[in-house]
Every structure is written in C-alpha cells, then in structure tokens.
UniProtKB/TrEMBL annotation:
Species assigned in the record: Colwellia ponticola
CDD domains referenced in this protein's UniProt entry, alphabetically: PLPDE_III_Yggs_like
N6-(pyridoxal phosphate)lysine PTM sites in chain numbering: K46
Cofactor: pyridoxal 5'-phosphate
Task of the protein: Pyridoxal 5'-phosphate (PLP)-binding protein, which is involved in PLP homeostasis.
Single GO term (MF): pyridoxal phosphate binding
Protein's name according to its UniProt entry: Pyridoxal phosphate homeostasis protein
Similarity comment text for this entry: Belongs to the pyridoxal phosphate-binding protein YggS/PROSC family.
Record domain Alanine racemase N-terminal: where: 39-236
Keywords: Pyridoxal phosphate
Top-level lineage group: Bacteria
Amino acid sequence: MTTIKNNIETIKRQIAQACQKSGRITPSNSSELIPSSPVLLLAVSKTKPATLIEQAYLAGQHDFGENYLQEAVDKIAILAHLPELTWHFIGPIQSNKTKQIASNFAWVHSVDREKIALRLNQHLQDDNDNNTPLNICLQVNISNEASKSGVNVEDVFSLAKIVDNCDKLTLRGLMAVPEKNAPKACYEQMQQLFIELKQQYPSVDTLSLGMSDDLDIAVAHGSTMVRIGTAIFGARANKI
C-alpha cells in the first residue's frame, strides 16, 4: 500500500507542477505538501485486481477508469462496500454492452456515435430504480487514427447536441487519446473544441486529456482530468 500511496502523491505533485508551469495555479507558500490543482487524477485500473484498487482508495484516490466491461463489473461488485468510489468507463463501446455500462458506471468517456448515446439513455429510462444522470464525455479522434475510436472533429457539435437532448445523460465534456508524440496542434485543437463546447453548454466542465507521457502538454492546454495507470499500479498484465 505504501508504494501505491507514494505513487499517487508523486503524480499529484507532477500535476501541480504542470499547473504551476502553465500558470493555472500560483506557487503555494503554505505548508501544503501537494498544492490543490484544477486537474483531477483518474486512476486507470484495467487489468489490476480489486485489492490494489482498494489500496489506492485508502490512499485517497476515489476515481477509477476501466476499459474492459466484464472485468470492471466484477471489481465494482467486489468493492461495493467502499463509499465514494466513482467508476469511469473509458474503453471502446460495443452496442451490446451499453446496458451494463449504463447501470454500473457514473461516467462514460468514450461516447463516439449517436447509437451509443441513445442506447445508454434508453437503458436508464427503462431503469426505474436509477434516477442519477450518466456523465458523458465525447471521445474525439483528434489524430485521425484509423485504429482508434472517436468522433471526427467536424462531427463533435452534432453529437454533443444529441447527448444534450437525452434526458438521462449529462454532457460533461471531451476525451481524447492523441497519437504518441502528437504535435502541439492536436492539443491546441482539443483545447479550442473544449472552450467552444463550454460556451454552448453550461454542463460542460471536463477535458479528459493526458496520460503519463503527455501530462505536461495536456495540462498546459486546459486538461481537467488526466488518466494514469502504470505509474500508480505498475506494469499491466497482457489482456487476452
């Protein structure tokens, strides 16, 4: 547990330093070990056992991101005794998985087409026991990679309108996974899309952008949430 706690503290310091470097927070003169920052740490816990997630939770980490649905559902059930856990689905979405995603997660970062948004909304409408809206980020294929999911830049606002019209969904913002060593222009474009979306929709407050390798440039371009896995939990096992 000590290692995970130390890893989380190290990453939060890195985030705070990136915020200071980009002028998003001023250097703190207080005794606070880790300055408060406007960037949330999302711990990516895919392929990691529930025991390690609980260790991270006890170290103060409450937001966790999962890519693989059945694995995630199993862990959510195991850790149901922990209050304040917030689960984020961040993987590609198959249409036949939307019901389980809608019923198990508080956030979905990877909505990239109308069909998925409408199915998530319908499942929640059908669930009379669930009155909590599902927080939605639109995944943008900012690097135009054929191998990655995501809505094209030119279709972001039409998809945003569809999500905003869904009564059981709350449009919170955008998510992207830029290609490795992506040019600065990719981050600038994501930042501009986020700014424009915020101006149009009051509920928008989240730019899920940045991982271990691009944390600094993502924070410098307005990211409000960074997704970190290996640096917290160690190397991942290969997913079969």
